[in-house]
Automatic annotation (TrEMBL):
Descriptive protein name: Molybdopterin-binding protein
Transport in keyword set: no
UniProt keywords, alphabetically: Molybdenum
Gene3D superfamilies linked to this entry: 2.40.50.100
Organism: Microbacterium pumilum
Pfam families, per the entry: TOBE
Sequence ranges assigned to domain Mop in this UniProt record: 7-72
NCBIfam families recorded: Mop
Transmembrane portions of the chain: none
Amino acid sequence: MREPTMRISARNQLKGTIVEVTKGATTAHVRIDIGGSIVTASVTNAAVDDLGLEVGQPAYAVIKASDVMVAVD
């Protein structure tokens, strides 16, 4: 049986390659190289295990934000 393709409503999807996965006590940082820029996501250790995230694996950084703030000195 073919697995269904996941679809998501977030439009800010950046395809890249996982370059680092660092697990902490409960939370992991996953660094994704997006064409030379690094995006870091904080996810649970369980999510890393469930998704089978590994260095070298293609992945998407999906960004969903309701607010964008700007600050200046």
